[in-house]
Amino acid sequence: MGLHMLTFIIRRLFITIPMLIIISFLVYLGLELTPGDAVSHMIDPEVANTVSPEQLQAIRESLGLDKSFMHRYLVWLTNILQGNFGHSLSGGVAITTIVLDRLPATLELSIFALVFSTLIGCLLGTISALRRGSTTDSTLTVVGMLGVSIPEFFFGLVAILIFALNLGWLPAGGRLLPGYDSLMDRLPHIILPGLVLSLMMTAGVMRYARSAMLDSLSREFIRTARSKGLPEWRINLVHGFRVAITPVVVLIGFRLPTLIGGSVIIEQVFQWPGIGSEFIGAVRGADYPLVMMIALLSVFAVLLASLIVDVLTALIDPRVRLG
Amino acid sequence: MSNTALDRKFDRIRALEEAGKLKPASGSRAIRKMMSNRLAMVGVVIFMTILLASIFAPLLTSHDPLKVDLRSMLQTPSSEHIFGTDRTGRDVFARVLYGGRVSILVGLGSALIAALVGVGIGCYTGYKGGWIDMIALRVSEIFMSFPQIILVLLLVSIAGQSLANLIIIFVLTGWGGMYRLSRARMLSLREEEYVQALQSFGVPTLKICYKHILPNALGPIMVNVTLTTAMFILAEAGLSFLGLGVPLHIPTWGNILNVAQDLRVLQHNWWLWLPVGSVISLFVLSVNFIGDGLRDSADPTIQG
Amino acid sequence: MNNELALSVKNLKTFFYTNKRCNKAVNGVSFDIKKGKTLGVVGESGCGKSVTASTIMQLLPRLSRIEEGSVTYYSEKGEVRIDQLERDGPEMRSIRGEEIAMIFQDPMTSLNPVYTVGFQIEESLKYHTHLGSAARKARVIKLLADMGIPLPEKRAKEYPHNYSGGMRQRAMIAMAISCNPKILIADEPTTALDVTIQAQIFNLMNKLKEEHETAIMLITHDMGVIAELADEVAVMYMGNIVEAGTVDDVLRRPQHPYTRALLESIPVLGRGKDQDIKPIRGATPDPYERPIGCQFAPRCDYATAVCEVMPDEEAVSDTHRVVCARYKEIFENA
Asked: What is the CATH number of the domain that holds A139?
């Protein structure tokens, strides 16, 4: 750790921040292209309703309505950095409020799916690799292929049909609040959407873990380990698995955008009050400020997660730190 | 020495070898590999079945997928209507068959166009290098920083819903992967000796790039095309299910599923959504089987 | 006799069964490894020398097996038939590392990149000795120092990619000898290294031989290495030993056409650029399409009809043996 890691992070930020700025520019461009002026939504509707038309016009001019595109963009950007994301076109609620309101739900689901798919995927993938060629391996391979082929929402529908409607074991959707309900009460609500969301990712991690494990086990240092007379479990775990996780962690980094995107549809299917379902509502309602803002935030989330994964990779693979 | 099943298998092989019976078969090794990969073969069969069923839809059903018949609403499957009818009396089987045309068109078509664009750019900029390569790389990174669904919905909200729009949007979100792949291959192949030889002979850049290097990179590209097709078909299904993909008046597999958002339909009218969903799953599964088979046969290092 | 021998291999056959075919990689090989002596096994790529080494350590891949023959290790407790031990069973595992150790060709890929060198050396000690943690760490540092690695305390905490090529191979050797094995198998230990580093490694290995009476089996394709290090030589071709004897016997009075051809195909430093090097004509045959009888016959300048039957082994002297039907005629006149 220490100095190497710090320079690594700083170098990554040097690349990431310009990218964010360019993307924010493109997003603002999108905002300008859509119907309506790109400035009015930055004003709090409460304020807009109480001031006189002249004062309103003054405010809008200060936001750059009559100035150049670049001026407006910079004003918009400054606002964002200060936490003013503008206001939703339907209802005039501050977007910041909406986001903060819905974020925990999405985080809950995403983290559940991430943890579950990583753990179970690695476990099953490793078992598959160690029992290569056996029936277990073949079964798991086919199950894995099914997992990446069945549309997640379809799987969700079937799951709702079986577990919620027919068997009545689990609720068909909705979410209970952490402050008000205990974990035990909330768990049944999280299980179905969480498992369905992790379906594709688990299958993906499993296949990748299997191939990473097989690749690792075929390398020369495994032969060296065996020639030292080490027991099989140690060769597989300490040497084989440990080297195999690096590419798996990198893969998870690549799949994060998919996870963030996947929650959009699943939230809709399970009536889960997260950012994803909010986004769908915004698209349907042509609520452009909200659409753009959520898109921008999702990119931010992806880039941030990417950075975290890169740091993790550097931590577990000593070779990466130098490069 | 214990006589395990493996030992007996070895004994058999050895006996055959010593009797001179095991000579390599003729024919391309790649094709042989494919044929011996049962899953890939199953995949091809399923794929062709569904594809041909969609193309020859008029031969398989006499019903018009768009024809509303309010007297036969919500009928369960029968010999008259193989998948039953929906809420406005339309024959579901016909809708699935004709819907397949659009879904496959969108999925496969977008994947192929995205491949064309991605590979075209990737080969050229990868070969040339320099600032044009840097720019293309950064641009692709920008596209790939968006979660696909979010980018698609973003563009749909700006551009509006239509079949053509959807294909264009899919290409925009999908070209990046192809680009990265072909660029990576190009970077490694361009250092090969035969390329330097071609350069010293004065062969023009474009020709080296597309005629000589590209064929060597085709293996992983084809695999990627199949995977991208699978991805787009799933994406279209998801979007149309939400009513945000292909406009509802054009039947697609996802569109048909749109009604399943209602829990009552889910529970009581299984024929409206279960068969369609299964068809989508089977089709994507077959594409994945084929992609896997392609990957195995193109990779010379996997042992038999 | 038993005091002298460390390992004895008799009529060993190892077959590979990949791609549903049978490859007779080692097809009847016999040799002895003596204590405190170096046996060099030389031959072109694919002749089966590495497979022989893997067989002794039972490190063969999944789709292969010891078909026939015996591998006998003369331990302090008596004779051990390695070929009859369970592949990864407790006895074999206690032999590996502790009694017989191996070093490999490319130390960069043979060392695990995510663990420190010290950790990897300590592993052997952990499983074969009863030393405590502090004692093990001290031992690691001493081993690295013995191998001539400067600043061993610092180096032990570094990763393989921090080491230079020569240092990595020394670290591998340190790891291999950490538990004082009786036999060290070195599979092309210097092929991946610079010539200057080679000399250092050779010195190390000679030191081992002299100070610890370690028996060394040295595998290489380089006759020069044999000349430097080996006491005895076995020349392999297509899974068989075609000639074997002391270094003096084989290098000065080669009796097999293949050995001769090998010696004549090597450029010698100092003889100038016009020296007569003759590459061996033809190429090694496909192991699945072997010639009948003597495997070298298609490439041999002296082959006749007699060579269509595999010759028996003949003794040229007490120490020197050869497998060639016509050697007497060919080389009496040489």
From this structure: 1.10.3720.10
